[in-house]
Each structure stands twice: as structure tokens, then as C-alpha cells.
Amino acid sequence: MKIGVICGLVALVLSSCVSRQKLAYFQNMERIDGNTTPNYYTTVIENNDLLNITVSPSGATEMDLKLVQPFNLPVTPAPNVTGTITGQPRLQSYLVDNKGNIDFPVLGQLHVAGLTRQALIELLKTRISEYVNNPIINVRIDNFKVSVLGEVKMPGSYQIEDERITLPEALALAGDMTIYGRRDNVLVIRETEGIKKYAYLDLTKSDFIDSPYYYLQQNDVVYIEPNKAQMQASAYNRNIPIFISVASVLISIAILITK
């Protein structure tokens, strides 16, 4: 009898008091199964983006390679204290200034802020075609990053290599939310053309994947708000409830044994 009561007490303490509705992501997925989801994944170039632009010829002759060289400026590593140059040369990157412009070789100043990557590629291809026959243009944002703050296991800023990331993927990079994070009130802050916007998303409902904030843009900030219990206990060690629960079990066991 005593053993049964003890096991019941332990199970009661270890079981969660939080309902599935407050913890589980993507509930009611059957509502969107088979539906066409709007594609909001479009990278738009903003001020302070660092662009990596490469121009390649469509041909492979020596003349073709020479024609594209002026558009691919190399950056040689600086010598160290002994005068020795270490490291490999790399291509010049282009910082979008606060007016949305870059200075590009041969072409001069170009206004690129507000353009999609594909629109910039088309612009460069049109302009460079005056010098190179059918050039191949590649554009990347070198400093594409998102920041995840609040109730996650590893808050911080994360560099995104392929310029495509969803909100759940950003949370995964940060080690997911802690048990204390509100899944129904996730804040995403975004700056577009100097204007700050934000949205609160409920990740417990599946329809948040239809939001334009499902796909994150460069420099987006994701903030996970602590739940009510964590905010009330902010002045104390967050492990105190666990200590109290364990102490309660031990006291109950001691009482049962001594009777």
C-alpha cells in the first residue's frame, strides 16, 4: 500500500501540469493539408546589406575571361607584421550605403535597395551586356542573419548561408524554446526600407505558416516572451519549483515510512 502511494506521489510530481494546447506546435494541421500556401519567400536588398557579386562569361576562351575581370575585383589579404601575405585573395564585397547605393566597377553607382536578388541580377546583366556577351551574374547577401532572443536555449544571432529560413528553422538553430516560452505569442520584428514592422504569431496554430512572417528576412529579430509563471518567478531561481516538488516527495515518503 505504501509503495503504491509513494509511486503515485512521484508520478504526480513528475507529470506536467501544462496542457498540450499550450506546448504543441502546428496543431490542427489537417486544416491546411493540401492547401496552397502563399510564397512570401523573396529576398529584398536593404541598406547595410553586404553583397557578393560575381560576373562570369558564358564562354571559356581567354578573351571571355579577360572581359569579365574588370567586374570581379580581387581583395588581397594585408601583410602581417613580418611583411608576409597569408590567406587567399577573395572577391570584393559591396556594402549598400544608407541611400541604398553601391559603387560597382565600370558601371559606377547603382541604386539597389528595394530590389529583389533576381531584379538586381537582371539589372546587372543588362548593363554588363554592353561589355560582355551574355554574362552570367550571381548575387549573394554575405551578412544575411537573424536574431533569436528570449526564452530559447541558445539566444543569439545566426548567419544564414542560403538566404532562406523559416521561423521554425530559426527556433531550431537557437535550440528551440524552453518550457517557459510562450508559443502563442511569438514576436517577429522586421525593418523594411527604414520602416519597422512587427507581428505576433501563434505557433500552436497551424495557420501561422500562411503569415508573411513565416519566412524570415535578413536582420529579422525573433523574441520569445516568458510565460506568466516564469515572469512571476523572475526574482527567484527558476529551479525552485523543482526543488519544492522534490522536497515535498521526500517529506511524504518520510512520513509514510515513519508511520
Report on this model:
Its main location: membrane. Keywords: Cell outer membrane, Ion transport, Lipoprotein, Membrane, Palmitate, Polysaccharide transport, Porin, Signal, Sugar transport, Transmembrane, Transmembrane beta strand, Transmembrane helix, Transport. The protein is an alpha+beta fold and 259 residues long. The chain folds into two domains: 1-41 and 144-259, Roll (Outer membrane lipoprotein wza fold like); 50-141, wza like fold (2-Layer Sandwich), CATH 3.30.1950. The chain has seven helices and twelve strands. It has helices spanning 2-14, 20-23, 62-68, 117-128, 167-173, 228-232, 240-258; strands at residues 50-56, 74-75, 90-91, 93-95, 101-104, 108-111, 136-141, 145-150, 156-159, 186-192, 195-201, 221-224. A five-stranded mixed sheet has the order 9-8-12-10-11, covered by helices on one side. The protein has a three-stranded antiparallel sheet with strand order 4-1-7, covered by helices on one side. A hairpin with a 3-residue loop joins strand 5 (101-104) and strand 6 (108-111). The protein is elongated, with a radius of gyration of 27 Å. The protein starts with a helix and ends with a helix. The relative contact order is 0.16. The model is unreliable at 9-16 (pLDDT under 50).
